[in-house]
Amino acid sequence: MYPFISLGPIALPTKAVIYILGVWFGLAILEKTAAHLAQNWATLYSLATNALLIGLVGARTVFVLLHWQIYAANLLSIFWPLNTGYDVWGGLITGGVYFFFMMRAKQLDYGQTADVLTPCLLILFFAIFLADYLAGPGYGAATGWSNLSFHPVQLYEIAVILVAGLVWWAAHQRPLFAGYSFLLTAAVVAFGLLLTTPFHGNAWITSSGWYLAQFIYLFVTILCLLTIIYFTTKYKQDK
Amino acid sequence: MNTNDSSLKNATSENSRHVGLWWGLLLGAAVVGLLYIIYSHNTAPRELDLSQLTEAPIVGQLAPDFTLYTAAGDSITLSELRGRPVVLNFWASWCGPCRLETPHFQAFSEQYGDKLAVIGINQQESAATINEFAAEFDLTYPLLLDKDNRINQAYAVFGLPTTFFIDENGVVFDISPGAISQAVLEDRLAKLIKQ
Predict the structure, then answer these.
(1) What is the pLDDT of residues A189-216, one digit of tens each?
(2) How many helices (H) and strands (E) does chain B have?
(3) Which has the higher per-residue pLDDT, B78 or B3?
(4) What residues of chain A lie within 8 A of the CB of B159, using their CB?
(5) Looking at residue B138, what is its pLDDT?
(6) Which of A37, A141, B58, B124 is paired with A214 by a 20 to 30 Å CA distance?
């Protein structure tokens, strides 16, 4: 919608500004959550910062690999311009893989670390959806309503994140086991995104008319809930 | 039954209730999720009523209409290009990044032919300068003059280059401020033409 934020004579790219604010706020929350949950905030902060940087490089690398035929003809274009040409999922996976292996190397508890990371991840998703709404590509599906032409799908996604934030808040107050608030929040986010997918004007759709992302989100929802059941049963038996 | 037996029985009962609740939640999510997926599959995408949209240089609205002229005097009206996607590139000959990306627009104009309209809108330069630029890059797609900067302003162009991707209905699909690489251009065009 609005690719620039205009401050007098200065025009700032909206997307970049929101991403930077999201990262800054997300890391600040991570630090606070880690201290609140009695985890080593310095280690987690450092890991998360590195994961973000590696994710950024990963997002660019995946985009370059996906369009390698073009980049191979002009290798300099890999490094410039850098204002566009990133694969969000490539970045998330690269950053996530780095974080996972470093977590193992530093012998951090998976469940507790995931609990600490959850609010930070929610803020990053919030920033991604907000940036997409204000300056991003594509728009929601046509509504057919007289007062609203397109579904503001990114606002629906932001609502999902806000609900997930409330769920995390409630879950982390009474955790059943380490990782509980992460799994429950992830289930809520995945189920919420399952509901919002058809409102995307440019969602991936199979030739037979199925939204592929919905199946992935349903799988993630079920997987998270099954894991909660497994650990709840185990925790109660141990107790 | 002693106290320990009683508390153990209570704990077991509470445990079963908790786990039962989670199973219920899982089952509910799976059923609702599957039903919703089936409902989404059966719901055909709605037709877009263009009369509900307004002209504005923002994603999801109608691209502001214009009629401009090439250096040779041929006129082009944006609304007459409905039915095929349009790439609108705002540029100037003095703009370094514009020079960098111009060959990509020419390449895609040739590659897509009639399936895509590539249009360059110059910012306040003379017909002679535009002709020199076209000759320098062997451009065949139309370059339009905007001497009074009216259309640049209508599209709220803050800096050059800026590229608008407009779908076949005349709706702004994406806006890309700054230089655009060939790969990014291909990526956007693939999404624009696929949708």
Answers:
(1) 999 999 999 998 777 788 788 999 999 9
(2) 5, 7
(3) B78
(4) 11
(5) 96
(6) B58
- Over residues A151-169, the mean pLDDT reads 96
Q: How far is B120 from chain A (nearest CA, A)?
A: 20
Residues of A in contact with B43 (CB under 8 A): 198
* B98 in catalytic set: yes
B90 lies within 8 A of chain A by CB: no
For A227-238, the pLDDT digits (tens) are 999 999 887 777
By Cβ distance, the residue of B40, B177, B188 closest to A13 is B177
Q: Does the beta carbon of B22 lie under 8 angstroms from any beta carbon of chain A?
A: yes
Contact at CB, A81 and B179, closer than 8 angstroms: yes
Look at residue A19 and tell me whether its pLDDT is greater than 80.
yes
Question: Which of A11, A135, A149 minimises the CB distance to B158?
Answer: A11
Strand order across the beta sheet in which B143-145 lies: B75-77, B67-70, B143-145, B117-122, B86-91, B162-166, B172-177
**A13 or B195, which is more confident?**
A13
A138–B191 CB contact, under 8 Å: yes
DSSP 3-state of B78: helix
Question: What is the ipTM for the molecules in this complex?
Answer: 0.86
Give the burial class of B136: count Cβ atoms within 10 A of its Cβ; 0-12 exposed, 13-18 middle, 19 or more buried.
Answer: exposed
pLDDT of residue B66: 96
Residue with tokens 């910012």: B123
Rounded to a whole number of angstroms, the distance from the CA of A136 to the nearest CA of chain B is 7
